[in-house]
Amino acid sequence: MHKVGLSVWQGDITTLALDAIVNAANESLLGGGGVDGAIHRAAGTELLDCCRKLGGCPTGEARITPGFQLPSRWIIHTVGPVWHGGQHDEEGRLRACYRNSLALAAQNGVQSIAFPAISCGVYGFPAELAARLAVTQCHAALKAQTGPERILLVAFDTKMAAVLTAAILASNEHF
Ligand code: APR
């Protein structure tokens, strides 16, 4: 379905049948709008019951649940930073989302994983900067060969697809 390494895919992340998809959640883990809402709608109410038991998730960290009604086996929920202008370690916290999600994926034997553009919607993070951070973190994980061998960066629209593609091309390594 997708070549090994890092690639961009445009569409609804809930339709992907991979080992895991990543949810851009909030600290309550009790659902919301955007991709969080789409994942909860597609996974079904068992997901909310399961998330309630997790007791939330601090920004930058990640938690794993089954995918329930989703075609993907797992959901890795991570909480991105809200963009407040870039002076509040937003970059470090977004890097942590990718790093911690990929580490949790590795711990669970996840070989294929898809990320939405974490924090680039409601949380207002600048897309180009977020794309650069995502590509850097994913390339590092692929090089370490400890976690997933196939990573999809999912764009929900053509603008984000172009931003993500440009970020991969601008990075000096291609997987
Ligand atoms: N599939 C893939 N990507 C999607 C989907 C989908 N079904 N729906 C939305 N997106 C994209 C958006 O276009 C955006 O580029 O996901 C990216 C992240 O946007 P948000 O979902 O708004 O997430 P975020 O910016 O991290 O804000 C998180 O929003 O939904 C609430 O509960 C969530 O409070 C949290 C906040």
Automatic annotation (TrEMBL):
Signal peptide: none annotated. This is O-acetyl-ADP-ribose deacetylase. It comes from the Bacteria. Pfam families: Macro (PF01661). One of its GO terms (molecular function) is O-acetyl-ADP-ribose deacetylase activity. Residues 1-172 form the Macro domain. PROSITE patterns: MACRO.
